[in-house]
Design goal:
By secondary structure, this protein is α+β, with helices and mostly antiparallel strands. It has 8 helices and 8 strands. The radius of gyration is 27 Å and the shape is elongated. Residues 158-242 form the ACT domain.
Length: 262
């Protein structure tokens, strides 16, 4: 079986072009993640893409000296396969769970795709790498906005309130939420053991499952809830999709006295 020596050789110029292209393509995707303040951003995506391209180049061209040995069989895809499976530890580190909300899945997927782009560039599969990069950017920028616009009416958000058990307290909360086009889908109430607001007023903990049209409407509603006299504390966990700076998580407790019973 004849061996083509040029197949296993690459010039320094071509190698440099591939590494720089991997840097640019990975950086474009990382820039979108950085812009939206995600855990894995600009530098992380560059490192993943450049590293993947380097490993692909090593897998194809790094062992060219052994190609002509009689008992050696080369497999250019072997190291690439390890990159695809091994990159998972970075993706797992980007996924966070806060109560019922899971975040970071898109960032984890973008890291995995960037690794594939780096492998494609390293193998000289330029058209596929550039095409995938363009599609990923369209998905992250345009489809993200479309998803938020189209799917918010199907999403729910859970919030926890601590309120003074007075007549009309829950009705005032429901009215306020309704004014912001927020619908209560489920409600769970329990008394706070050992805590009282006064001698004849108990404190109750309420968990509300809400259906809403906009994260910003929920943030505004929570701001108004904290100003109600009977609301002592509000905790919304993580509000995904909120465009208001610093209000992705709403947690507030008033400075009113809480008495321990007994």
């Amino acid at each position: 079986m004849s061996i083509n020596p040029e197949l296993w050789q690459i010039s320094n110029f071509d190698l440099t072009i591939r590494i720089i292209l991997a840097l640019l393509l990975g950086g474009l995707i990382g820039l979108e993640r950085e812009w939206n303040n995600h855990a894995a951003g600009f530098r992380t995506h560059i490192l993943v893409c450049v590293g993947s391209a380097s490993i692909m180049l090593l897998s194809i061209y790094g062992f060219s000296a052994f190609v002509y040995e009689a008992n050696v069989r080369t497999d250019p895809a072997r190291l690439a396969a390890q990159v695809i499976s091994g990159i998972g530890f970075l993706g797992a580190g980007a996924i966070l769970r806060t109560g019922p909300t899971v975040s970071g899945l898109t960032t984890a997927a973008s890291i995995w795709v960037v690794a594939a782009i780096g492998l494609s560039v390293g193998a000289g599969f330029y058209y596929a790498a550039i095409l995938v990069t363009g599609l990923v950017l369209i998905s992250l920028f345009l489809l993200n906005k479309w998803e938020k616009h189209m799917m918010w009416h199907r999403r729910t958000q859970e919030i926890t309130l601590r309120i003074v058990d007075r007549p009309g307290s829950l009705g005032n909360i429901a009215t306020l939420l309704g004014n912001h086009s927020i619908q209560i889908k489920n409600i769970h109430m329990e008394h706070e053991q050992g805590l009282m607001f006064s001698e004849d007023e108990n404190i109750i903990k309420i968990r509300l499952t809400l259906q809403l049209l906009s994260a910003d409407k929920l943030v505004d509603a929570l701001d108004e809830l904290t100003r109600l006299e009977t609301v002592l504390a509000v905790d919304s966990g993580h509000i995904s999709g909120s465009g208001k700076s610093g209000k992705g998580r709403a947690a507030f407790q008033k400075g009113k006295g809480i008495n321990k019973a007994g």
